[in-house]
Each structure stands twice: as C-alpha cells, then as structure tokens.
Amino acid sequence: EAGVAQSPRYKIIEKRQSVAFWCNPISGHATLYWYQQILGQGPKLLIQFQNNGVVDDSQLPKDRFSAERLKGVDSTLKIQPAKLEDSAVYLCATSVRVANEQYFGPGTRLTVT
Amino acid sequence: GQQVMQIPQYQHVQEGEDFTTYCNSSTTLSNIQWYKQRPGGHPVFLIQLVKSGEVKKQKRLTFQFGEAKKNSSLHITATQTTDVGTYFCAASGGATNKLIFGTGTLLAVQP
Hints:
The complex is a heterodimer of chains A (113) and B (111). Chain A has 113 residues and is an all-beta fold. Chain A has no helices and eleven strands.
C-alpha cells in the first residue's frame, strides 16, 4: 500500500512571498489533516477535512493560510503572504475515518527568510 | 481549550535501562494515541487506547490509559538504540474528535 505523498520536500522563500504544498492521501482514506510542526514541538492541527468538507479549521490563520481538498482526494495548503514565523514542517496525514490512526506523509520543510 | 502535557521533555538513558513518559490532560478523553517520530522523520502510529484502565503491550513497550481517562503512560523495558526519537501522545475528545498532540518526550539512548 502506497503511503501519503507530499511535495515539495523542501522550500525556501522570502517573507511576503506565497507558497503551496500538495498532499496525496492513501487511497480510500476519507479524513485528511494538515499539521504545522515547529522545531521541538508537537504537530499542531491546522485543518481537518472529511472527504472534501472542512471539519475543523479553528487554528488555521485564515488571513494568510488557505486549504482545499478537491473531489475528496488530493489537497493543497497555501500560504500568502508568508511570514518568518511560518518556518516549520508542514505535515499531511490521513486516516480511514475520524479518530482512527493517522498515517503521516514525509512533510514539507519550509524556511522563510 | 484542551491541553495535553507530557513529562519529561527529555530523557537520556543508558542502553538497557527502562524509560517511561507520561501524558496528562485537563479534560476527560475519548481516546489516546501514541506516535514515535525519529529525528528528521515523521510521526508513526504506535497504538490507540480507548477504554478506562486499558493496558496494551507491544514487545518491550507497555501502554496504559488511566482509570479516569485523563492520563496515559508509555513504558519501554530495556531500551535499545533503535528506540531513539520523540514520543508523542495525541488525545481526542469533544464534538469533532480533533486530535491534540502532546509536547513530546525526546528519548536519547547511549550505547
């Protein structure tokens, strides 16, 4: 079974630029999560999708972050404009259903200079 | 809001010694999951606990869910260098069953 795919793996941008991350879930996994993990901290949930609907986006900074999951499969997370404090690893995870075990992708390491 | 704290933040042990990390929540939880993250890697699911007082074992790892469903522990017997990494508990509860990750415990094992 293929795992969760993410791209790019690394990205370096200047502040105020925009960036987008892509996630391809495990086939059949209805629930998809985007997490932000700052060095030395646990993953922090940004947004949770159930199929193509948003379940929870309470911690998503909506003035600069946006996410979508078209057709309930692939998902993209965008940051525009980026700030220095956005430097982190952005992890995508999927599960068969809510509250089940989550499978994480390798993450995208973002550096904002 | 719900918070999940883990102690200790960091533990350095000699290979062969035991290790325990504790996870505490301010609210009653519906379930606890444990993940391991190797340095430079991504979190990998270890186990899920759902019942009050539940104890599960995986080889040298023992996981326990508290009677009040507010705390959990992970115990590793006779650590090995392959156990190195950060161990996170992740707790869910409430209407959306959102998973809140703990602060993590970084385990270093000296051969």
